Amino acid sequence: MKAEVTNLDASKAGDIDLADEIFGLEVRNDLIHRMVRYQTLKRMAGTHHAQDRSEVAVTGKKMTKQKGTGGARHGDKSAPQFRGGGKAFGPKPRSHAIELPKKVRALALRHALSSKAKAGEIVVIDKATSEGKTGALKAQFAKLSLDNALIIDGAELEPTFARAARNIPNIDVLPVQGINVYDILRRRKLVLTRAAVAALEARFK
Description:
Layout: E1 2-6, E2 12-17, H1 20-23, H2 29-43, H3 102-118, E3 122-125, H4 134-143, E4 149-153, H5 159-165, E5 171-175, H6 181-186, E6 189-193, H7 194-203
Parallel strand pairs: 1-3, 3-6, 4-5, 4-6
Antiparallel strand pairs: 1-2
Helix pairs in contact: 2-3, 4-5
């Protein structure tokens, strides 16, 4: 499929061919959902912790006599039914990560790219360069109607562009090796440089 290439000042810079095996797939939302779930679960800290009855700081003394009180024969106050006692079956630190085959992850990325292409939400620019001024870059983005976008460059980001873009709300900049399904979907537009398109095609050959 053909795509128009523009410069950051909104002037035309030619055309580019986008590979159908990457940008032209029939979108499978189930694969995309599995990948988003994989990413979000993997990033969870899993540091939640509740004290059980062996960890709470209460006396270990038997509450009442074993016989003669007419009450239940409780042992100590750390039992879960008492105020200040331990939590029964409370959360413990653990990993929430799930398994997802590498081939499925790669396929999900291609389907996410195809979904953006199908929705007409991919913008291809010639280069991601800037003089390092946030205001000037924001004005250039306004010409391209980029107010909520993920920008993917080649293997290396230009430091001045990355520095100028990082203060603009709802704009993310990543090198091509950092492209992922979650970040693609959370932004309205996907902006790819020529270098990013070439790197993606080489990656999925």
